[in-house]
Amino acid sequence: QEKLVESGGGLVQPGGSLKLSCATSGFNFDIYAMGWFRRAPGKASELVAAISSNADNSYYIDAVKARFTITRDNDLNTLYLEMNDLRPEDTALYSCAQSQGPLFNLAQHSYGDWGQGTQVDVTS
User: Fold this and answer.
1) Residue range 41-85, pLDDT digits in tens
2) Are the C-beta atoms of residues 88 and 123 closer than 8 Å to each other?
């Protein structure tokens, strides 16, 4: 049974940093692309970043480019999202999800079930 458990969220001031982790089990992590999603109150969910199975390719939405970095450790079956220069508009519930294959897809429906998420609040 697939399991994804996010952690690392919290309350941070604008300009601060957080590093999210997504610990996975129950599937062959190293052969699937992975993605980080976020959901903010009153807004549609969005794919924030994605990474291919071998980490050769990654994707970011424009709003987080140069501030967020997605990485993975295939030995530890763990996905990460390092977030720097956080802004109030980054406030959301962040969740990870498994893609359908080794190459990431930008369509949300191509990802499996999300983890329970970790809350990020950026406020002064």
Assistant:
1) 899 999 999 999 999 999 999 999 999 999 999 999 999 999 999
2) yes
